Amino acid sequence: MIELKNVSKTYGKGQLRLQALSDISFQLQKGEILGIIGRSGAGKSTLIRCVNLLEIPDQGQVIINNTDITGLKGKKLEEQRKKIGMIFQHFNLLTSRTIFDNIALPMELAGKSKKEIREKVEELLELVGIADKARQYPANLSGGQKQRVAIARALANDPHLLLCDEATSALDPATTKSILELLQRINERLKITILIITHEMEVVKSICHSVAIIDKGKLMVKGTVQEILSDQNHPVVAAFLPEEKDIQLPTDIAKTIKATYTEEGSAVVEIKMPENGTITWIADVASLFNVKVRIIKSAIESFGTLTTGYLIALFEGDNLQIEQALHYLNEKKINIKLKGYASR
Ligand SMILES: Nc1ncnc2c1ncn2[C@@H]1O[C@H](COP(=O)(O)OP(=O)(O)OP(=O)(O)O)[C@@H](O)[C@H]1O
265 - beta bridge partners? Predict the structure, then answer.
């Protein structure tokens, strides 16, 4: 079990003094995957760096399997650090070393034998699915493959804890999914505890067992993903709710949008998603007014049964009929906002 007890950290002195972490306490059970979310500057990276003592807390304790590692120095601290793996947003691989040698590095530093290192690296290459890349260099790999190397390297000394600092933030959605699946497989197979710092809801929803939110250096709440995400008033949910400012007009439309209808134009309409996540009126608008609704942008999140967010749609048709359709939707109290008119 991993426990943080009343951990605080300040940077700077005098007027520049900044309380980055304030009295943080939580527990992580063996095999748990905890996601920590929070706004930029909330203290997420400081927290994760305090867990492996890359930053030394001013106060409080980091207790790993009943050992208070904050009190350790020298070799004893190094021994404990070896049991904590870490992966980063930008992978942090050594460009002059092959993939094999990148993964081998922590074991070389730990003084393992060549045979031991070879066997372990081969096993890890298989585990993360890049056995064919052993002799390549990082520059020849995709982002997802680089993160697989970083994961293998983080596992080299059989850690009991894996720290992930925005590990999928630089990856596209499909690669993110495959890396999250890999982390989940590692968690299940090796029973390794994982602490993830993220700003991506997808990460929390797809692999975390529990989630906590950090705000201005304070840990607000920790709970299971299920209980937190089904409560739409929960601060964790609120932190992820798309706001109106999150949906912007596509640039080509923003440049040409006009306040009045133009011949051969279409109305640009912002739609607030209803909470049940279903828009039922598109077919009505088509059949009653011969207006075609085309969704061109969305910022939507789902939490349990709640769906929330915004869409941008083009209403295409004759001016009068578009106006009638908008009037009809306003009468029905559908949450829409006319942004202007675009040329087709
Ligand atoms: N080495 C440092 N020296 C001084 N201030 C620091 C240092 N590292 C972080 N800070 C400050 O501490 C606060 C927390 O920073 P931290 O990097 O932990 O936030 P974060 O939640 O990880 O942010 P982001 O999501 O933008 O990476 C910020 O105000 C930051 O400017």
Answer: 343
